[in-house]
Amino acid sequence: MTFHATTARQAMGSFDLGLLIRSRRHARRPRMTQAALGALIGYSESWVCRVEKGDLVPPWDTVARIADVLGIAPMELMKAAHPPERSVTRVEATGDPRAFPAATVTTAVSGDREDGTVRRRQFLAGAVGISAATVSGTPTEAAARRLVTADPSSALEAALFQPPGAAPVSLALLGPALRAARGDFRRARYAKLGAGLPGLLATAEVTRDTLAGRDRETASGMVARAYSLACELAIKTRSGTAWVAADRALTAARVSGQAAPLGEAARVLAVTMRQAGRAHAALEVLSDACRTLADLDEPQAQGTRAALLLTAAYTAAQTGDRGGALDLAGEAAEAGGRLAYGSEADHFTLQATPEQCAAFHISIFNALGTPDDGVGYARRIDPAVFPTAERRARFWTDTARMWHQIGRPQQTYAALRAIEQQAPEEARRPSVRALTADLVYAPVSLPGLREYAVRTGAIHG
């Protein structure tokens, strides 16, 4: 069936999101497939199919990515995704929902549900108040209430493009604030982390700018690590801000002259590149960073190098290089085995412990299309050995993908439930929601699955 411009106009007039996406996809030359669109935005072919059929309405950040890929004006696509009868009465904005400054919104919401644009603007309006507690101490009661519904993607945009005013602090205060933020990531408290990032990044930068000499280099390393953490969060939420955060992390790391922050920044940049389909280029970035770190004796530098090797192993698997991926995984295990993480552990979001290296084999085999090879690893690993909720959830996510590829829905669902038990916010990540939605529409009935999918945002109730 061929879709013409008139069909697209009819789609816009009737607020049919699926028809609008399908018509623009078909209008591409050569015609873009559902699988190709899904790959570009981080979802499966079946997920795109369900959006086009009207079974799913994507979240705002995904709508923005679809608009960018298909060349649709974002406001036009947002209008199709959230028609007037389901959302706001009137939105007067700059024309691009991502350009959120200077917008006036009048709401008339049916029931208790607000349009995503309205929620996003309300959150941004309070972001400065929330983030002020990052360095100064405990959040206010009002800030704590807002954390419950905070959108990490919106918070990242606020942190990067609308930073609050901040005053410099001592390095003795900035260090613990950075460790606390990394702790939120390790505990998979992404809404809290996102809410605190604007204040942390602004404070780190203004502190650095008031210093000179060795203190300035130390502060630059902290700025780099804060932006690397922001990039980690952007990667989790599939936010386009990952590129900005990675670039700022690299810039600050180079000024710091410290190898470990530079390696961390290189790793998050490589993951960002890999998600954009540039795995070979990502491998070059990782290889260069590993060479830089190889001859350094500092525990942080070697811990970073070991994490880089694990990331490189998974990246090589995504290029189809089985031998290279397994060799890199083995090298990571060897490098990690020489480290005693101990007190250094809080410096890392990824550690090349023996258990973590073993778990990475599951994701490597998933990427290679041979998930059966990962079953033995999955069955002999005790998730309790992983030091953080984020890493335990990552193990269960890889295990869920493994069972899903093999065609074992019961085991897939069990792993998905384990993700939610370990880290509820991980279960709401875009890639995990897509996997959940795939399972919902599979030809199998699993008690409680649909309720789980609604609860985690994979489908609408």
Automatic annotation (TrEMBL):
Gene3D superfamilies: lambda repressor-like DNA-binding domains. One of its GO terms (molecular function) is DNA binding. Pfam families: HTH_31. Residues 21-77 form the HTH cro/C1-type domain. The keyword DNA-binding applies. InterPro entries: Cro/C1-type_HTH, Lambda_DNA-bd_dom_sf. Keywords: DNA-binding. The keyword DNA-binding applies. This is DNA-binding XRE family transcriptional regulator. It comes from Streptomyces olivoverticillatus.
